[in-house]
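[RESIDUES AND BACKBONE]
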Amino acid sequence: MPHAALPGLSFTAIDFETANPKRASVCAVGVVKVRDGVVVDALETLVQPPPGHQSFGSYNVAVHGITAWDVVGAPAWDVVYPKVAEFADGDTLVAHNASFDRSVLTRASEAYGIPVPRSQWLCTRDTARSVLDLPSYKLPDVSRALNIAAHDHHDAGADARQCALVLVELCRRLGPNGVGLLERHVRAW
């Protein structure tokens, strides 16, 4: 049975995968739109990493399974960024380990000379730390603690959706004060 809506809980969750340790090396992005606590739309795509950042590191490939062959013919970040920005439409951006995702967005955009406006971000990992007492705050661990079904971890679209579900469930569990969680944990970057 689906949960009831949470009026006022609206945001866009985002997740990136990178080709190598360099933050500019975006190779996949997923974004999920939430309106009043309900997932209403999603966008995900592979991305050809920016020039100078195209090598795929063995560690990164082992984590997400994306290889150089997978992104042949994929759009480059300068094509993807406007679509992501339009999709998010000024929403607060929510990510699990937001400092990583924010830096990927910033560095990949810098590689193309794309100015990134200051925006509001919320980190579900940090938010979960403030609400839950867990031995680990990795996305699968937080999801399990909140009884959210497992997902395909390190798939950008699946991780963005899972991140969205985590924030919705955290807010739901906090009851009447839950929606305020978004305002209390948002940071401008």
